[in-house]
Amino acid sequence: MFIDPVAFRIGPIAIHWYGIIFAVAAVASAWLATREARRRGEDPDRVWTMLLVAAVGGIIGSRIYHVIHEWDLIYSQRPELIPQIWMGGLGIPGGVAGGLIALAIYTRIQGLKFWRWIDVAAPAMLLAQAIGRFGNFV
Length: 138
Hints:
Structural class: mainly alpha
């Protein structure tokens, strides 16, 4: 049994299940991280900015990882496909690395303690990964 990867459409825009699951994972993990930040005496409002920073870094990192991994097979012959993430091709190891690099840069710029915020984010990252895995089945 196959599930249509498109959940619904709004005019010409297709809303994919993977995107919905990604959004649910992001919101659930941010909720958990805000609770953890509050518990540790950190500003929970920073979590939402960090989520955006980590998501952008994660998407870039996951695409770079995928492109490197598939370079010989696909992208060396068709480099114009590299920016087309909507066609698929994201790698979790690169996403985690890209998100962490983005957070390291952000915390340094903001004068925050990177490892303290990683401790805040760790349970939320696990939750996001657990929820996000379901997107691979659609």
